[in-house]
């Protein structure tokens, strides 16, 4: 079955194609049709089986984007899950104009949530306690609610939220649709299902997560070294016969295969767009040894059984545990030994843990092959090529030419041999060069033992020889508002959605003097992107797009200044050209970024919007950490809740 068989609207199918999804997981195939038909669903499935898309896609199919009141409410046990689900809705609704989703949870200021609810949203994802607070305030209107989703209901029961869940259920219209998902079905969850669900379709998905014991599983924490460089090191230093490298999207397979081929690695790509005849030819080339690396999507590699495949490498982590099991099952077949390697970014640690829990097998950390190891392998291969050439019967002519050059130019034969070796090697250096600063082992923090290490400087540049660049944000004087007083400190946690695009409270709304020329912070450059207030963009949209597409932590994204027609954003100096070209084609709020370095005219004068804060929004660069999400990031506004939970 493919997603095109599920009667989903065309905008959702386009969004699925954008992220490379081709076939639904078992729970998606079982629950999407009844939810599209308006039936209640009682689903039993483990975390990591793809259930977020199982309820998000039919919910989005049934909403009216023109209606600005909440039509879908998702209750989640933790704020981390609420943020994750909200981001999934945003991703699947990419081609739905006017769509807005809002995560609400405790520990975040009420003010941005209230402002977003006033502006209007179609989907609310929240923790039970904060949802109850908004219902009691009257700020959350559920009168037009069409669908209520209870995600990880047994976890909400374990955390003591079950009374709040029932209180929310009682405040929803009788006509609403209910989807309840739970990994287990304790008595209280069954009672809620019997009380509040009407003739539900019951779906139970047992995760088939057994992995072969003869497959060694390892992961590398993406840290400091670009993934492509890390993959190249592994391919050069890890003994393997043939390897499948899994990428998440069709475009990703093509780009990665091209980059590997440019580095002298025999690689090819297969994905859902490759014609069957070409696919069969590529697989035959893999079997015959004409290519050694196959870059593939999940669907394209299903059922692939090639005896040569000794390694599977997950370049992009899969979205669910079932996909991971299917991927690594391409090696270790028929009792043979196999190797599985997984690249994990810091934000993907949760999925790593979910895979370990589901498969009931630990995945051990691995260290990248060192530069010295890679160079030893390169030298060994180079000397091997000389051995092969010396065995040839066609050396007589070349020997005469070398001897002639030696006599006529009075150059020792060893120098001639060195020059010929350089000629053969071409522009590609034979040896990797060590970085200016020593590499740390990817799983060691000084003084903290083993564990994930945050990435180093963006773009893996040498440190600036400038003492100002190392000055911490805390050491900088606080910015001050027009009254000369320091603004309240923002103490938001990672992943927190903060807004500052909303109008300021009445007492703050007064004309501010126009800003002078805008200068980037130390170590940063100002870039112009062609999306602004007129397109409905929020700071979090910009942060999320750049962080995800550039694989750049949000702490490296500085000030964001949204103007009417365009925006200015501070990014680290030294942006690679290929990354700039990629970001130009990234879409935010329906507009391509077309990113370029800002000119003097872009950065001078003018405010983005009346009531906006001088200096722009800060995502996570100098001046204090900020995180973006579906709705944005910015300073906290003081707001005193009436009944904090």
From TrEMBL:
Domain Helicase ATP-binding, chain residue ranges per copy: 32-203
SUPFAM superfamilies in UniProt: P-loop containing nucleoside triphosphate hydrolases (SSF52540)
Organism the protein comes from: Lysobacter arseniciresistens ZS79
Signal peptide region: none
UniProt-recorded name of the protein: ATP-dependent RNA helicase DeaD
Family annotation (InterPro entries): CsdA_RRM, DbpA/CsdA_RNA-bd_dom, DEAD/DEAH_box_helicase_dom, DEAD/DEAH_RhlB, DEAD_box_RNA_helicases, DeaD_dimer, DEAD_helicase_DeaD, Helicase_ATP-bd
Sorted UniProt keywords: ATP-binding, Cytoplasm, Helicase, Hydrolase, Nucleotide-binding, RNA-binding, Stress response
Job of this protein: DEAD-box RNA helicase involved in various cellular processes at low temperature, including ribosome biogenesis, mRNA degradation and translation initiation.
Highest taxon, organism lineage: Bacteria
Record-listed E.C. numbers: 3.6.4.13
Gene this protein is translated from: deaD
Domain DEAD-box RNA helicase Q: 1-29
Residue ranges constituting the Helicase C-terminal domain according to the UniProt record: 227-374
GO CC terms of this entry: cytosol; ribosome
Record field: catalytic activity: ATP + H2O = ADP + phosphate + H(+)
Pfam families found in the cross-reference section: DbpA, DEAD, DeaD_dimer, Helicase_C
Record-level GO BP terms: cellular response to cold; ribosomal large subunit assembly; RNA catabolic process
Compartments where found: Cytoplasm
């Amino acid at each position: 079955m493919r997603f095109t068989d599920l009667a989903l609207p065309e905008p959702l199918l386009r969004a699925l194609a954008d992220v490379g999804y081709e076939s639904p997981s078992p729970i998606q195939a079982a629950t999407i049709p009844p939810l599209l038909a308006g039936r209640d669903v009682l689903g039993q499935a483990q975390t990591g089986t793809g259930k977020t898309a199982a309820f998000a896609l039919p919910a989005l199919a049934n909403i009216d984007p023109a209606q600005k009141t909440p039509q879908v409410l998702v209750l989640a046990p933790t704020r981390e899950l609420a943020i994750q689900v909200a981001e999934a809705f945003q991703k699947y609704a990419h081609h739905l104009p006017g769509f807005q989703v809002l995560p609400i949870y405790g520990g975040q200021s009420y003010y941005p949530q209230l402002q977003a609810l006033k502006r209007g949203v179609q989907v609310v994802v929240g923790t039970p306690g904060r949802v109850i607070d908004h219902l009691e305030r009257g700020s959350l209107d559920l009168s037009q609610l069409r669908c209520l989703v209870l995600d990880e209901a047994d976890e909400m029961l374990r955390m003591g939220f079950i009374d709040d869940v029932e209180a929310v259920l009682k405040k929803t219209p009788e006509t609403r649709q209910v989807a309840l998902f739970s990994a287990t079905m304790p008595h209280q969850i069954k009672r809620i299902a019997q009380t509040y669900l009407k003739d539900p379709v019951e779906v139970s998905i047992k995760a088939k997560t057994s992995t072969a014991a003869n497959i060694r599983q390892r992961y590398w924490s993406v840290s400091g070294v670009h993934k492509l460089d890390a993959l190249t090191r592994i391919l050069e230093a890890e003994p393997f016969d043939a390897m499948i490298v899994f990428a998440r999207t069709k475009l990703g397979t093509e780009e990665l295969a091209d980059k590997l081929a440019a580095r002298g690695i025999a690689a090819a790509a297969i994905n859902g767009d490759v014609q069957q005849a070409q696919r069969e030819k590529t697989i035959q080339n893999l079997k015959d040894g004409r290519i050694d690396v196959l870059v593939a999507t999940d669907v394209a590699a299903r059922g692939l059984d090639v005896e040569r495949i000794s390694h599977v490498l997950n370049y992009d982590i899969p979205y669910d545990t079932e996909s991971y099991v299917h991927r690594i099952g391409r090696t270790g077949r028929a009792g043979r030994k196999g190797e599985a390697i997984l690249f994990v970014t810091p934000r993907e640690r949760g999925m790593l843990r979910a895979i370990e829990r589901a498969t009931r097998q630990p995945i051990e950390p691995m260290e990248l092959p060192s530069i010295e190891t890679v160079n030893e392998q390169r030298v060994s291969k180079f000397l091997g090529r000389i051995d092969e050439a010396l065995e040839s019967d066609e050396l007589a002519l070349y020997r005469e030419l070398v001897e002639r050059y030696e006599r006529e130019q009075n150059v020792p034969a060893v120098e001639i041999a060195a020059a010929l070796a350089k000629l053969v090697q071409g522009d590609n250096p034979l040896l990797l060069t060590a970085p200016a600063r020593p590499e740390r082992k990817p799983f060691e923090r000084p003084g903290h033992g083993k564990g994930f290490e945050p990435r180093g400087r963006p773009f893996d540049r040498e440190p600036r020889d400038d003492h100002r660049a190392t000055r911490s944000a805390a050491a900088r004087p606080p910015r001050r508002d027009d009254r000369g007083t320091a603004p309240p400190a923002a103490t938001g946690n990672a992943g927190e959605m903060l807004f500052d695009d909303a109008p300021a409270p009445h007492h703050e709304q007064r004309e501010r003097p126009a800003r002078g020329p805008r200068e980037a912070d130390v170590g940063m450059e100002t870039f112009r992107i062609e999306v602004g207030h007129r397109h409905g963009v929020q700071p979090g949209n910009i942060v999320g797009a750049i962080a995800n597409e550039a694989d750049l932590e949000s702490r490296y994204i500085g000030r964001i200044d949204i103007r009417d027609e365009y925006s200015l954003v501070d990014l680290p100096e030294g942006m690679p050209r290929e990354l700039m070209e990629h970001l130009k084609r990234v879409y935010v709020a329906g507009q391509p970024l077309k990113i370029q370095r800002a000119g003097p005219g872009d950065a001078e004068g003018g405010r983005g919007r009346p009531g906006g804060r001088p200096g722009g929004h800060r995502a996570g660069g100098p001046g204090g950490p900020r995180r973006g999400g579906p709705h944005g990031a910015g300073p906290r506004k003081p707001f005193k809740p009436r009944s904090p939970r």
